[in-house]
Amino acid sequence: MVEDMWDWKPDILGAPFEQTTLTLGEDSEGDVVATVVRSLAAPATWWRTLSGDQRRLTDVDVLYVHGWSDYFFQRRLAKFWNDRGANFYALDLRKYGRSLRPGQTPGYVADLATYDEDIAAALAAMGWKTDRARSDRRLVLMGHSTGGLTLSLWAARHAGLASAIVLNSPWLELQITGITRQAIAAFVQLTARVRPMEVGPQLDLGFYSRAQQEVAYAEDPYEVNPQWRPERTMPVHAGWMNAIVNGQHTVEAGLGIAVPVCVLLSQRTWIGVRWSDEAKAADTVLVVDDIAKASLKLGRSVTVERIDGALHDIFLSAKPARDDAYATLGRWVDHMLVN
Question: Alpha-carbon distance 131 to 144, whole Å?
Fold first, then answer.
């Protein structure tokens, strides 16, 4: 298999997770790499072979991309796909998580299309190419927040590769709209042109991280590396923010994605300057109604699913909302992907 050419090593998440480093050359801050983490579905057992393997996604490869100030650590998400027979791959983009190197500006790019190199390298490690689909496998893209924006743009530029797209609270729209949004976008664009590394004010009060900690439950433990996923977001630079705004403008014009898209969102948004228990049952990052509306610009077949009580990362919500999210995604997958 193509994957045998890659140096897969045990990952920090433990078995069955493995990782491989993807070399992407150099930039002004030194060597640039990305990292793919994989969890392969168990092979069909003899009794499954005799009785007929009931896992309906054994020909599916899932590629997951994390959000801003984030990296992949969600074991249960991989298990969801593995239990259905799919192979699961997660990409830590350049300068994030496992791919962050000393001296680098965490998460910084000036154009989201830069990630085409990361995604192409990840697909190569998965046995895929970027110029044509495989006849024996199907590709499902899955992105959270900024990763959802990045993958949506990528899918529009690489039509015909993915069979379906799943977006977990994709950052398709700024938290403000109208004239104020246009003014801020113009200011960001100007600043990015003359001072791309200028750092904006820290607006994250740590409520999102606190909400995740308070709703976590012992049956599904997880740990995060605070250097890779700090309590408050990493510094936001003007050049990076301009890349986000440009990507959102492209979405607003319509992407024309032809394959089915599932967008998972919280039922409500909560934004406050003092902690409230409301933060434990809402998206504290995005205005979800605006995201729902923007989602309709992605393509011709878009399903928007609203999960009551969900956080910004739907799959890190309190157990009732999390269970609802997995059940909802399962129904969509069964409808859209099962032959």
Answer: 25
* Rounded-to-integer distance, Cα 279 and Cα 204, Å: 13
Domain, as residue range, for 85: 2-337
pLDDT mean for each 10 residues of the chain (339 residues): 73 97 96 98 70 83 98 97 97 98 97 98 97 95 98 97 98 74 72 88 92 90 93 95 95 97 98 95 96 97 98 97 98 92
pTM for the complete prediction?
A: 0.94
State the CATH number of the domain containing residue 164: 3.40.50.1820
- DSSP-based three-state secondary structure for 231: coil
CA 111 to chain centre: 17
How many structural domains are present in the chain? 1
CB 148 within 8 A of CB 168: yes
Residue 116's contacts (CB-CB under 8 Å, 6 or more residues apart) are 130, 154, 157
